[in-house]
Amino acid sequence: GDVVQWHQPVQSYLTTATVREDSSLEVIAQIHSDSSILKLYNHDSISHGTLRMDPDGIICGYDWNTTVEHVETKDGILGRIMYIDGNGDEGEYWLDSIYEEAVKIRETYCGNVLSAAQALMLSKVEQQKLEQQKVVTNGGRLVDPVMDSPLRSNYPLSSPVQGGGGGGGPPIGGVVEPPGMTVSANKPKAPTTDACVGTEGDLLPPAPQPI
Known about the structure:
Distance between the termini: 119 Å
Structural class: alpha+beta
Low-confidence stretches: 171-178, 190-203
Strand content: 15-25%
Order of helices and strands: HEEEEEEHEE
Helix content: 10-25%
Strand order of the largest sheet: 1-2-3-4
Radius of gyration: 43 Å
Mean pLDDT: 75
Number of helices: 2
Shape: elongated
Number of strands: 8
């Protein structure tokens, strides 16, 4: 079938249409009852087009029989449309209800797009704040959220517990040493030897001696 043209030239419409002003958007609504078209443009103007077909039933385009400018300033009704469907049954609908639905769809569309754009911007700002909180520097050093936590003890794990008086337990992260033992940073390591498994005779334990 024929392509429905916008009320404005395409290039002009593309430069002026914006969701920030719903009246700048055009709405083309197809009415399934009789396959006619209602165009909503400007603030409150409409055009209603009915199908035009040749004798063979091929769609040739639309006849724009009804055009109403500035609907909201009119006192009367827009009119009732009578039609016959594919089964030969008669039907009718009011242009007023189609117009009101088209206006509502346009307002809802603009509101949804603006809300989604605002939510996306707020989400981006919050994400940037979180990233800034994660990357905090202290004298040029990245702060580890676990190791640098104020709840962590200042005692290194390799140092002995200092002062356990007052009945309290050892600080978090301290090591409780058995009595008589201390931990020194220069404590010598125990000698170690290499171990192996073999069947050599010199590795076997000595035979028990009679008493």
